[in-house]
Design goal:
Shape: globular
Membrane topology: Multi-pass membrane protein
Organism: Nitratifractor salsuginis (strain DSM 16511 / JCM 12458 / E9I37-1)
Largest sheet: none
Pfam families: G3P_acyltransf (PF02660)
Number of strands: 0
Pathway: Lipid metabolism; phospholipid metabolism
Order of helices and strands: HHHHHHHHHH
Subcellular location: Cell inner membrane
Structural class: mainly alpha
Length: about 210
């Protein structure tokens, strides 16, 4: 029990548990009566919420898709803000960021299944690594506009973020002197996109209309 009284451990648990909240699943289930884990790609993220609900109610689909995107992006940032106000070290903040992404990707509330980690990942990275993340978001916007494939656009943005991070901070991200947590987040997102990569290879990945 003494372990749980440690502030860092409390922050880490909060990051994982709040990151685990499957907002897309909950919103679609409660406001549209749809289980997004059983339809479309089976993903709980904003893209699948939008794709599945668009067939039933386009206006509601846009609202719930936007709400899912916002909530998934902000849930890791909330704990980071609290931790920073409490004077947490940069290494603690980066651990919180990783755990928030892991919570989303491997949610305890969904039997350690979850989303792709894109929105949550970019949320925490925008907080901790703003310039490379803004570059990545610009790359995502261009790719999404031209390719209209959400998964591929996200992976292009992820590659842009890694390149920008190394170009701007060749000795490691500020405060910790390493790119390790960025790599952990990137590899987690990439791992969760393996089914998308297989569909892309087989030319079966559906574009976002």
């Amino acid at each position: 029990m003494e372990l749980l009284s440690n502030l860092n451990i409390q922050l880490y648990l909060a990051a994982y548990l709040i990151g685990s909240i499957p907002f897309g699943y909950l919103l679609a289930k409660n406001f549209a009566g749809v289980d997004v884990k059983q339809e479309g790609s089976g993903n709980i993220g904003a893209t699948n919420v939008l794709r599945v609900l668009k067939q039933r109610d386009p206006a509601l689909a846009k609202k719930l898709g936007a709400a899912t995107l916002f909530l998934d992006a902000i849930k890791g940032v909330v704990i980071l803000l609290i931790a920073k106000m409490l004077g947490a070290s940069p290494s603690t903040l980066w651990t919180i960021a990783v755990l928030a992404v892991w919570g989303h990707c491997f949610s305890i509330f969904l039997g350690f299944d979850g989303g792709k980690g894109v929105a949550t990942g970019f949320g925490v990275l925008l907080f901790l690594l703003p310039i490379p993340t803004l570059i990545a978001l610009a790359a995502w916007a261009v790719a999404a506009k031209t390719l209209k494939i959400s998964s591929l656009s996200s992976l292009i943005a992820l590659a842009a973020l890694m390149i920008a991070s190394y170009l701007l901070y060749p000795e490691g991200v500020p405060g910790i002197g390493t790119h390790a947590p960025v790599w952990i987040i990137a590899l987690t997102v990439l791992y969760k996109h393996i089914p998308n990569l297989i569909r892309l290879f087989n030319k079966e990945e559906a574009p976002v209309a």
